[in-house]
Amino acid sequence: MEDPTNPLAPVKTYHRSDQEFAPSESRSSPWSREHRTSKCCVYILLWAVISAAIALVFALVVFRVETPDFRLSDVTIKNLHYATSPVPSLNATLIANVTVKNTNFGRYKFENGTSVSVLYAGHPVGDRIVINAGRARARDTKEVNVTMEVRSSWLGSDVVSRNLSSDLNSGTLQLSTYAKLRGRVHLMEMFKRRRTAEMNCTITVDLPSEKVQNVRCS
Ligand SMILES: *[C@@H]1O[C@H](CO)[C@@H](O)[C@H](O)[C@H]1NC(C)=O
Ligand SMILES: *[C@@H]1O[C@H](CO)[C@@H](O)[C@H](O)[C@H]1NC(C)=O
Ligand SMILES: *[C@@H]1O[C@H](CO)[C@@H](O)[C@H](O)[C@H]1NC(C)=O
Ligand SMILES: *[C@@H]1O[C@H](CO)[C@@H](O)[C@H](O)[C@H]1NC(C)=O
Ligand SMILES: *[C@@H]1O[C@H](CO)[C@@H](O)[C@H](O)[C@H]1NC(C)=O
Ligand SMILES: *[C@@H]1O[C@H](CO)[C@@H](O)[C@H](O)[C@H]1NC(C)=O
After folding, report:
1. To the nearest whole percent, how much of the chain has pLDDT over 90?
2. Among candidates 115, 116, 121, which has minimal Cα distance to 152?
3. How far is CA 177 from CA 91, 198, 208, in A?
4. Hey, what's the signal peptide range on this chain (predicted)?
5. What is the number of the ligand closest to the CA of 123?
6. Structural domains in the chain (count)
7. Does 209 reside within a domain?
8. Per-residue confidence at 31, pLDDT binned at 50, 70, 90?
9. From start to end of the chain, where are the E strands?
10. Are 166 and 74 members of one domain?
Protein backbone atom coordinates (compact mmCIF):
# COMPACT_ATOMS: atom_id res chain seq x y z
CA MET A 1 0.00 0.00 0.00
CA GLU A 2 2.92 2.38 0.62
CA ASP A 3 4.58 1.93 -2.74
CA PRO A 4 1.94 3.52 -4.99
CA THR A 5 1.64 6.66 -2.82
CA ASN A 6 5.38 7.36 -2.50
CA PRO A 7 6.15 8.00 -6.19
CA LEU A 8 3.25 10.43 -6.36
CA ALA A 9 4.52 12.71 -3.57
CA PRO A 10 7.73 14.02 -5.24
CA VAL A 11 5.95 14.53 -8.54
CA LYS A 12 3.55 17.06 -7.06
CA THR A 13 6.41 19.17 -5.67
CA TYR A 14 8.25 19.07 -9.01
CA HIS A 15 5.15 20.30 -10.71
CA ARG A 16 4.86 23.28 -8.39
CA SER A 17 8.56 24.27 -8.68
CA ASP A 18 8.41 24.06 -12.47
CA GLN A 19 5.60 26.57 -12.57
CA GLU A 20 7.41 29.00 -10.23
CA PHE A 21 10.72 29.04 -12.09
CA ALA A 22 9.47 28.92 -15.65
CA PRO A 23 5.84 29.95 -15.94
CA SER A 24 6.15 30.76 -19.67
CA GLU A 25 7.52 27.33 -20.49
CA SER A 26 5.27 25.02 -22.37
CA ARG A 27 3.28 22.58 -20.23
CA SER A 28 4.54 19.71 -22.28
CA SER A 29 7.31 18.59 -19.91
CA PRO A 30 5.25 18.36 -16.67
CA TRP A 31 2.46 16.92 -18.74
CA SER A 32 4.56 14.10 -20.11
CA ARG A 33 5.99 13.53 -16.65
CA GLU A 34 2.50 13.25 -15.25
CA HIS A 35 1.63 11.01 -18.11
CA ARG A 36 4.64 8.88 -17.33
CA THR A 37 3.72 8.58 -13.66
CA SER A 38 0.15 7.61 -14.44
CA LYS A 39 1.52 5.03 -16.83
CA CYS A 40 3.82 3.87 -14.07
CA CYS A 41 0.83 3.58 -11.71
CA VAL A 42 -1.00 1.50 -14.25
CA TYR A 43 1.99 -0.81 -14.52
CA ILE A 44 2.24 -1.14 -10.74
CA LEU A 45 -1.45 -1.89 -10.54
CA LEU A 46 -1.22 -4.35 -13.40
CA TRP A 47 1.76 -6.02 -11.76
CA ALA A 48 -0.16 -6.28 -8.46
CA VAL A 49 -3.19 -7.78 -10.18
CA ILE A 50 -1.09 -10.27 -12.16
CA SER A 51 0.89 -11.39 -9.12
CA ALA A 52 -2.31 -11.74 -7.12
CA ALA A 53 -3.77 -13.87 -9.92
CA ILE A 54 -0.63 -16.03 -10.08
CA ALA A 55 -0.67 -16.45 -6.30
CA LEU A 56 -4.34 -17.43 -6.42
CA VAL A 57 -3.82 -19.99 -9.20
CA PHE A 58 -0.79 -21.37 -7.36
CA ALA A 59 -2.79 -21.67 -4.13
CA LEU A 60 -5.71 -23.31 -5.92
CA VAL A 61 -3.45 -25.86 -7.60
CA VAL A 62 -1.21 -26.61 -4.65
CA PHE A 63 -3.84 -26.60 -1.94
CA ARG A 64 -6.48 -28.51 -3.83
CA VAL A 65 -6.76 -31.87 -2.12
CA GLU A 66 -7.79 -34.82 -4.23
CA THR A 67 -8.70 -38.27 -3.01
CA PRO A 68 -5.98 -40.69 -4.14
CA ASP A 69 -6.87 -43.33 -6.69
CA PHE A 70 -6.91 -46.73 -5.03
CA ARG A 71 -7.04 -49.81 -7.23
CA LEU A 72 -5.63 -53.16 -8.24
CA SER A 73 -3.19 -53.53 -11.10
CA ASP A 74 -1.28 -56.37 -12.73
CA VAL A 75 -3.63 -59.07 -11.56
CA THR A 76 -2.59 -62.62 -12.33
CA ILE A 77 -4.18 -65.91 -11.35
CA LYS A 78 -2.29 -68.99 -10.21
CA ASN A 79 -3.08 -72.45 -8.87
CA LEU A 80 -6.51 -72.45 -10.45
CA HIS A 81 -8.42 -75.64 -9.71
CA TYR A 82 -12.09 -76.09 -10.30
CA ALA A 83 -14.58 -78.93 -10.56
CA THR A 84 -18.29 -79.09 -11.24
CA SER A 85 -18.91 -82.42 -9.52
CA PRO A 86 -19.64 -83.87 -7.03
CA VAL A 87 -20.09 -80.29 -5.80
CA PRO A 88 -19.11 -77.14 -7.70
CA SER A 89 -15.81 -75.98 -6.27
CA LEU A 90 -13.05 -73.53 -7.14
CA ASN A 91 -9.68 -72.67 -5.57
CA ALA A 92 -7.22 -70.14 -6.88
CA THR A 93 -4.56 -67.63 -5.92
CA LEU A 94 -4.76 -64.02 -7.09
CA ILE A 95 -1.52 -62.05 -7.21
CA ALA A 96 -1.80 -58.35 -7.73
CA ASN A 97 -0.37 -54.97 -6.98
CA VAL A 98 -2.45 -52.62 -4.92
CA THR A 99 -1.73 -49.10 -6.14
CA VAL A 100 -2.30 -45.79 -4.41
CA LYS A 101 -1.92 -42.97 -6.92
CA ASN A 102 -1.47 -39.65 -5.17
CA THR A 103 -1.89 -36.59 -7.42
CA ASN A 104 -1.52 -34.09 -4.58
CA PHE A 105 1.43 -31.77 -3.97
CA GLY A 106 1.93 -33.41 -0.59
CA ARG A 107 2.33 -36.96 0.64
CA TYR A 108 -0.58 -39.20 1.51
CA LYS A 109 -0.11 -41.24 4.67
CA PHE A 110 -2.52 -44.11 5.07
CA GLU A 111 -3.43 -45.86 8.27
CA ASN A 112 -2.48 -49.34 9.38
CA GLY A 113 -4.79 -52.28 8.92
CA THR A 114 -6.64 -51.59 5.67
CA SER A 115 -8.40 -54.82 4.75
CA VAL A 116 -9.12 -55.85 1.20
CA SER A 117 -12.01 -58.27 0.72
CA VAL A 118 -12.32 -60.65 -2.20
CA LEU A 119 -15.92 -61.29 -3.15
CA TYR A 120 -17.84 -63.62 -5.38
CA ALA A 121 -21.44 -62.65 -6.14
CA GLY A 122 -21.14 -60.16 -3.29
CA HIS A 123 -19.98 -62.76 -0.75
CA PRO A 124 -16.47 -63.17 0.72
CA VAL A 125 -14.48 -66.02 -0.86
CA GLY A 126 -11.32 -65.87 1.17
CA ASP A 127 -9.39 -64.25 3.97
CA ARG A 128 -9.11 -60.50 3.87
CA ILE A 129 -5.72 -59.09 2.94
CA VAL A 130 -4.36 -56.57 5.39
CA ILE A 131 -2.29 -53.65 4.14
CA ASN A 132 0.04 -52.03 6.63
CA ALA A 133 0.50 -48.32 7.12
CA GLY A 134 2.45 -46.55 4.43
CA ARG A 135 2.73 -43.45 2.34
CA ALA A 136 2.45 -42.39 -1.26
CA ARG A 137 4.82 -39.51 -1.94
CA ALA A 138 3.64 -36.28 -3.56
CA ARG A 139 2.55 -36.86 -7.15
CA ASP A 140 3.68 -40.47 -6.98
CA THR A 141 2.17 -43.96 -6.97
CA LYS A 142 2.75 -46.41 -4.16
CA GLU A 143 2.54 -50.10 -5.04
CA VAL A 144 2.16 -53.01 -2.68
CA ASN A 145 2.02 -56.58 -3.95
CA VAL A 146 -0.62 -58.80 -2.43
CA THR A 147 -1.55 -62.46 -2.62
CA MET A 148 -5.20 -63.43 -2.16
CA GLU A 149 -6.43 -66.97 -1.76
CA VAL A 150 -9.82 -67.70 -3.28
CA ARG A 151 -11.73 -70.64 -1.80
CA SER A 152 -15.29 -71.47 -2.78
CA SER A 153 -15.68 -73.31 0.54
CA TRP A 154 -16.34 -69.84 1.97
CA LEU A 155 -19.58 -69.62 0.02
CA GLY A 156 -22.99 -70.72 1.18
CA SER A 157 -24.55 -73.68 -0.58
CA ASP A 158 -27.22 -71.46 -2.17
CA VAL A 159 -24.60 -69.26 -3.89
CA VAL A 160 -22.70 -72.36 -4.98
CA SER A 161 -25.74 -73.99 -6.52
CA ARG A 162 -27.27 -70.82 -7.97
CA ASN A 163 -24.22 -68.89 -9.17
CA LEU A 164 -20.95 -70.84 -9.07
CA SER A 165 -22.38 -73.86 -10.78
CA SER A 166 -23.53 -71.89 -13.83
CA ASP A 167 -20.38 -69.75 -13.94
CA LEU A 168 -18.14 -72.83 -13.95
CA ASN A 169 -20.18 -74.23 -16.81
CA SER A 170 -20.03 -71.00 -18.78
CA GLY A 171 -16.25 -70.75 -18.36
CA THR A 172 -16.18 -67.14 -17.10
CA LEU A 173 -16.17 -66.07 -13.52
CA GLN A 174 -16.29 -62.65 -11.94
CA LEU A 175 -14.54 -61.82 -8.69
CA SER A 176 -14.44 -58.42 -7.06
CA THR A 177 -12.32 -56.67 -4.49
CA TYR A 178 -13.40 -54.02 -2.09
CA ALA A 179 -11.45 -51.88 0.38
CA LYS A 180 -11.49 -48.54 2.12
CA LEU A 181 -8.19 -46.75 2.61
CA ARG A 182 -8.16 -44.10 5.32
CA GLY A 183 -5.42 -41.53 5.47
CA ARG A 184 -4.32 -37.92 5.36
CA VAL A 185 -2.85 -35.68 2.72
CA HIS A 186 -0.05 -33.56 4.21
CA LEU A 187 0.48 -30.18 2.58
CA MET A 188 3.65 -28.17 3.24
CA GLU A 189 4.07 -29.70 6.72
CA MET A 190 1.26 -27.43 7.89
CA PHE A 191 -2.06 -28.74 6.70
CA LYS A 192 -3.53 -32.20 6.92
CA ARG A 193 -6.66 -33.22 5.12
CA ARG A 194 -8.42 -36.49 5.76
CA ARG A 195 -9.15 -38.48 2.60
CA THR A 196 -10.67 -41.94 2.32
CA ALA A 197 -10.12 -43.78 -0.93
CA GLU A 198 -12.29 -46.71 -2.00
CA MET A 199 -11.28 -49.66 -4.11
CA ASN A 200 -13.97 -51.41 -6.09
CA CYS A 201 -12.58 -53.69 -8.78
CA THR A 202 -14.16 -56.41 -10.87
CA ILE A 203 -11.90 -59.19 -12.14
CA THR A 204 -13.08 -61.38 -14.99
CA VAL A 205 -11.39 -64.79 -15.11
CA ASP A 206 -11.41 -67.00 -18.17
CA LEU A 207 -11.42 -70.51 -16.74
CA PRO A 208 -10.30 -72.65 -19.72
CA SER A 209 -7.20 -70.52 -20.33
CA GLU A 210 -6.70 -69.93 -16.58
CA LYS A 211 -6.11 -66.24 -17.28
CA VAL A 212 -7.39 -62.92 -16.03
CA GLN A 213 -9.38 -61.53 -18.92
CA ASN A 214 -10.21 -58.10 -17.63
CA VAL A 215 -9.86 -55.91 -14.54
CA ARG A 216 -12.17 -52.96 -14.15
CA CYS A 217 -12.00 -50.57 -11.22
CA SER A 218 -14.44 -47.79 -10.44
C1 LIG B 1 -10.25 -76.68 -3.01
O2 LIG B 1 -9.62 -76.82 -1.76
C3 LIG B 1 -10.34 -77.62 -0.83
C4 LIG B 1 -9.57 -77.62 0.47
O5 LIG B 1 -9.13 -76.34 0.76
C6 LIG B 1 -10.48 -79.02 -1.36
O7 LIG B 1 -11.27 -79.78 -0.48
C8 LIG B 1 -11.16 -78.97 -2.72
O9 LIG B 1 -11.19 -80.28 -3.29
C10 LIG B 1 -10.40 -78.05 -3.65
N11 LIG B 1 -11.13 -77.94 -4.90
C12 LIG B 1 -10.58 -78.19 -6.08
C13 LIG B 1 -11.44 -78.06 -7.28
O14 LIG B 1 -9.41 -78.50 -6.19
C1 LIG C 1 0.53 -52.39 11.78
O2 LIG C 1 -0.11 -53.53 12.29
C3 LIG C 1 0.73 -54.68 12.34
C4 LIG C 1 -0.10 -55.85 12.84
O5 LIG C 1 -1.45 -55.58 12.77
C6 LIG C 1 1.90 -54.42 13.27
O7 LIG C 1 2.76 -55.54 13.25
C8 LIG C 1 2.65 -53.21 12.79
O9 LIG C 1 3.68 -52.89 13.69
C10 LIG C 1 1.72 -52.04 12.65
N11 LIG C 1 2.45 -50.94 12.06
C12 LIG C 1 2.33 -49.70 12.49
C13 LIG C 1 3.12 -48.68 11.75
O14 LIG C 1 1.60 -49.40 13.41
C1 LIG D 1 -26.86 -65.42 -8.60
O2 LIG D 1 -27.81 -66.24 -9.26
C3 LIG D 1 -29.14 -65.75 -9.19
C4 LIG D 1 -30.06 -66.80 -9.82
O5 LIG D 1 -29.54 -67.27 -11.03
C6 LIG D 1 -29.21 -64.41 -9.93
O7 LIG D 1 -30.51 -63.91 -9.85
C8 LIG D 1 -28.25 -63.47 -9.29
O9 LIG D 1 -28.22 -62.25 -10.01
C10 LIG D 1 -26.84 -64.04 -9.25
N11 LIG D 1 -26.01 -63.14 -8.52
C12 LIG D 1 -24.93 -62.62 -9.04
C13 LIG D 1 -24.19 -61.66 -8.17
O14 LIG D 1 -24.53 -62.90 -10.16
C1 LIG E 1 4.34 -54.13 -8.32
O2 LIG E 1 4.80 -53.36 -7.23
C3 LIG E 1 6.18 -53.51 -6.94
C4 LIG E 1 6.48 -52.73 -5.69
O5 LIG E 1 5.81 -53.28 -4.61
C6 LIG E 1 7.00 -53.04 -8.12
O7 LIG E 1 8.37 -53.21 -7.85
C8 LIG E 1 6.60 -53.82 -9.34
O9 LIG E 1 7.26 -53.30 -10.47
C10 LIG E 1 5.10 -53.75 -9.58
N11 LIG E 1 4.75 -54.65 -10.65
C12 LIG E 1 4.33 -54.22 -11.81
C13 LIG E 1 4.06 -55.28 -12.82
O14 LIG E 1 4.15 -53.05 -12.04
C1 LIG F 1 6.19 -58.66 -2.88
O2 LIG F 1 7.33 -58.81 -3.71
C3 LIG F 1 8.56 -58.87 -3.01
C4 LIG F 1 9.68 -58.96 -4.01
O5 LIG F 1 9.25 -58.78 -5.30
C6 LIG F 1 8.55 -60.06 -2.09
O7 LIG F 1 9.75 -60.08 -1.36
C8 LIG F 1 7.37 -59.96 -1.15
O9 LIG F 1 7.30 -61.12 -0.37
C10 LIG F 1 6.09 -59.80 -1.93
N11 LIG F 1 5.01 -59.59 -0.99
C12 LIG F 1 3.84 -60.21 -1.11
C13 LIG F 1 2.83 -59.83 -0.09
O14 LIG F 1 3.60 -60.99 -2.00
C1 LIG G 1 -18.80 -51.21 -6.97
O2 LIG G 1 -19.08 -50.67 -8.25
C3 LIG G 1 -20.25 -51.20 -8.86
C4 LIG G 1 -20.41 -50.58 -10.21
O5 LIG G 1 -19.21 -50.43 -10.85
C6 LIG G 1 -21.46 -50.90 -7.99
O7 LIG G 1 -22.58 -51.50 -8.54
C8 LIG G 1 -21.23 -51.45 -6.59
O9 LIG G 1 -22.28 -51.07 -5.76
C10 LIG G 1 -19.94 -50.92 -6.01
N11 LIG G 1 -19.70 -51.54 -4.74
C12 LIG G 1 -19.42 -50.87 -3.65
C13 LIG G 1 -19.25 -51.68 -2.41
O14 LIG G 1 -19.31 -49.66 -3.66
Report:
1. 73
2. 121
3. 16, 10, 22
4. none
5. 3
6. 2
7. yes
8. low
9. 69-83, 89-102, 108-110, 114-120, 123-124, 129-131, 134-136, 140-151, 172-187, 191-206, 211-217
10. yes
CA-based nearest residue to 107, from 131, 132, 135: 135
Q: Domain of 83?
A: 69-217
Q: Within this chain, do residues 47 and 93 fall inside the same structural domain, yes or no?
A: no
The verdict on the CB of residue 147 being under 6 Å from ligand 5 is yes
pLDDT digits (tens, 9 = 90+) for 77-128: 999 999 998 899 999 999 999 999 999 999 999 999 999 999 999 999 999 9
> Considering only CA atoms, which residue is closest to atom 8 of ligand 1?
89
Closest approach atom of ligand 3 to CA 166: 5
Atom of ligand 5 nearest to the CA of 146: 13
User: Is 48 part of any domain?
Assistant: yes
Closest of 102, 105, 70 to residue 191, by C-alpha = 105
CA 109 – CA 116 distance, rounded (Å): 18
Measured in Å, how far apart are the chain's first and last C-alpha atoms? 51
Quick check: is 210 in a domain?
yes
